[in-house]
Amino acid sequence: MKSVYIRELRHYTKIELSNLFPEIDSNQLTVFIRKLRAYGILKSVKRGSGNLDLTELVSLDESLLDGIDDNNASYYIFNYVGVIYIDGYLLCCYPKYLFAYDYIEDKPKCRQLLKQVLKVLHRYNTSSQSVQLYSMDNQSSAVSRLSMIVALLDDYFQNGLYLNTQNIHELNGDGEINWNRTINFTHPLWQEGDPYYFNFWTRRNTIDDKSFIQRIHECLLTVCSRELEEITLLDLLDINGVYLTEFSLNDLGTRDYLLYRITNELNTEFNSRKQYVLKLMGALLKDSSTMSEEDSIDLFGTTSFNLVWEAVCADVFDNKLTNPLSDLPLLSAVKIPSNMLGVRPRTLKDLIERPKWTSIDDVVAFSDTLKPDLISVERNGNGSSFVILDAKYYTMRIESNKVEGQPGVGDVTKQYLYQLAYKDFIELNGIQEVKNCFLMPTEKDEIVSVGNVQMEMLGKLGLEKIQVRELPAFKMFEYYLQRRKLPISVLNL
């Protein structure tokens, strides 16, 4: 098993790809590239397209090449963060801001950073009880076997084995008295018109440790652990293997029979956790492939790490956007602007005015409005501060009168508009300090003040400049995984 480290969105030539995979010839590399392109993981762009950022890859379709470039006239870009198992290789795709690891052969620290990123992805994906779906196109989606395996193991660590219980009825047993059964099936002694029972039917629940479904669960957990161990992913995903049985799935029956038993159980089980496990087991059984097969491809990661970065920032800086207005740390009871009184806003999100559409015959309708990423409200001495933050997954550079990798003008104007949208609320509630800031990841160990961006025509409205801060991603992820918070003051706005 060979691990190959690849930085997200770095420009690779075909020669560089050949050097990354020296064991395969040119024809095999072509098949390799096409397979990755089919999953949307690998993009090819014409040389001269510039330093495309994540969001730009979506819009610049004219730069994308459909074929394989044999003349080195294009670059290949991995639009992915996570791990990919393909044709006997384990591709370790680390985030784009880790520039320092591009030319280092021995990457133990990079591996540690990737382990942390995978933990972040895992928490992000399991915020609800679901496995990660990986979309191949806009019309269909396929469930990654690796994602299903991780989900099954994670459920086991949280909830244990699939257990069925049996109701046991006993005469004079240790369980709870079943009065209905006692009255119906035993004879009392009557004394002065009152019945006295000397024998009782009791009821207790016992675990059926011979449940067939439980045995399937044990086998699947064991098989899945061995699959991850075989391709060295147990360590990288920081998962302990679960080895519960020496039996194989074939010992229990054919795949069709096992699916039949799971389907029958699913039809009679109404517990949501059990339904989730049954569906996972069924999906894994239907997928007859194994991750160690040469022609297989499997994934655990995302092509949209920007969404993960947004979620991390919102969690660590304790986003107040959807909190009840009454819970905000203001000096006095919250006051609602007069133009919003008829709307009855409950959260900060509700305070943003919605576009009002009126037809020529005076029919009125409202559409969706602006949606800020993150708003923080904190007590600041004798007052409160109102901070509008926007998590941007960019790697920006300002040098020699030139800026690269920056948010677009639409992002800048929206950030100004967020402040304008809350202007009445801020003034009415006596909030004296208002700040606006972009948050970007960095491989550095400390918060970096990059500078600011402004548009003078909007600044004339009394709106604050938009500050730019680079945050040490490693520390942000650490806080996210530990469910700890950071005060806004660390940004030094």
- Low-confidence stretches are 58-63, 128-141
How far apart are the termini?
A: 48 Å
Question: How is the largest sheet built, in terms of strand order?
Answer: 16-17-20-22-21
Task: Characterize the overall form.
Answer: flat
Strand content: 15-25%
**Helix amount:** 25-40%
Question: Would you kindly provide a written description of the structure presented here, covering whatever features stand out?
Answer:
The protein contains 16 helices and 22 strands. The protein has 493 residues and is of the alpha+beta class. The chain folds into 4 domains: 2-123 and 296-303, no CATH class; 141-163 and 213-286, no CATH class; 165-207, no CATH class; 307-491, no CATH class. The strands form 8 sheets. The protein has a 5-stranded mixed β-sheet with strand order 16-17-20-22-21. A 4-stranded mixed β-sheet has the order 1-5-4-13. Helix 4 (108-125) packs across helix 16 (473-482), helix 5 packs antiparallel against helix 11 and helix 10 runs antiparallel to helix 11. It is flat, with a radius of gyration of 29 Å. The two termini are 48 Å apart.
